[in-house]
């Protein structure tokens, strides 16, 4: 008897259950992803009065988004591709996009978790309180910013096959983004670097998150930063999808 | 579909696969019937894996037709895959998942209802009742192959593709796996098996195709292949024990040189 194609919802449910279980079993890396922004948030308590709560929150969210996109997503994809896990899934009667949708859903959940963690710690430790619209708008912009780093991760894993090289490159890019992004934006590396950082993926994401947390401060420049963020996300994702190979052979 | 039960479960016609300018598979044609174990043999780099990848839909051939259970692999790929069970050469599952979770994942992908009782019965069937909470990497080679075979057949497919399933197994595990493969045949499924073991091909395969340099150089039953080529000078010259074996025929047809 011939078998029919199973429902996509059944396959997607199974994939999501497996991917969330795998993420849960990787609790240590989840904690590490959340820990860095939370530690910065706590240690920068003194800066809240000087720089403003939204500025500090947006830096922490941006660092967390960088970690999720570059360290979490990219390295898992590189490892599973190298081990042939994707090829095993792809010979099943499911469209290949369902595999990636499931993986990305887990990362979106991580972004939500990160944003909640930063908002909660900011509220209780640094006494940063925002309007409900600010929290809501901040969530949306964190998700929008997250797509830049997921796209960047996709591009890296599209360009580089070997998982250990992917791991090394993502760590380097992560470090560069954080150091140059944080120091550069504060002007510690000169005006030219500061300008470059403002319009870099780090700067535009930080800007849209920061401005969204205080909706009254949303300006034309915020809109430009949002456009730039969307542009980065689209370019990185399109190139990442175009270059991506499901196996390393 | 107007497929009769006796119609081939796999039909490959005039398959050509290229990697750039390299012509890896040249005009390969064969069929696998229901209730048949079909061996696909060839030296390293002969075109076995490329042919298999084209059947699995992982590789796009330059030309030729492949149908599984009457479904065109390129035009109706999901239908074809729903009727195919596949055990890849290097099967790997997410290392964070337990055996139970892996089985549930693939049951979901193939749209198979999996109650706890059914899951327990399946694990019992492959003598791994107590291994449900273990990770795949914690199993022995034989146990891993049993799990892989179980997953390949979880949806009761009409065609099962097994890519070197017994490589690295001890004789006991290998014999046990042969019995499981034969049980698949008894159910009326077609099996396409690639192997480097001539003993295995002789023991379990009903028919064999030998592929070399991308071309099928012989197709027949193991017995007929030996009978037909027993007087070939190339075959006699490689014979070692005074009697002609399938391995002698294989080396006689594909040459003595070691392939990378």
How would you portray this structure in words?
The complex is a heterodimer of chains A (249) and B (260). Chain A has helices spanning 8-25, 27-43, 47-51, 53-82, 85-90, 96-124, 132-159, 163-185, 191-198, 201-213, 220-243. Chain A has 249 residues and is mainly α. In chain A, helix 4 runs antiparallel to helix 6 (96-124), helix 7 (132-159) packs parallel to helix 11 (220-243) and helix 10 (201-213) crosses helix 11 (220-243). Chain B is an alpha/beta fold and 260 residues long. Chain B has helices at residues 48-56, 77-82, 99-109, 116-125, 141-152, 171-186, 198-204, 222-229, 233-238, 246-254, and strands spanning 10-19, 22-32, 37-41, 63-68, 71-72, 84-87, 159-163, 190-194, 207-212, 215-220. In chain B, the strands form 2 sheets. In chain B, strands 6-7-8-3-9-10 form a 6-stranded mixed beta sheet, with helices on both faces. In chain B, strands 2-1-4-5 form a 4-stranded antiparallel beta sheet. In chain B, strand 1 (10-19) and strand 2 form a beta hairpin. In chain B, helix 5 (141-152) runs parallel beside helix 6. The radius of gyration of chain B is 19 Å and the shape is globular. The A-B interface holds A 2-7, 10-11, 13-15, 17-18, 21-22, 25-26, 80, 83-85, 87-95, 246-247 and B 1, 3, 56-58, 69-70, 78-79, 81-84, 86, 88, 90-97, 101-102, 104-112, 155-158.
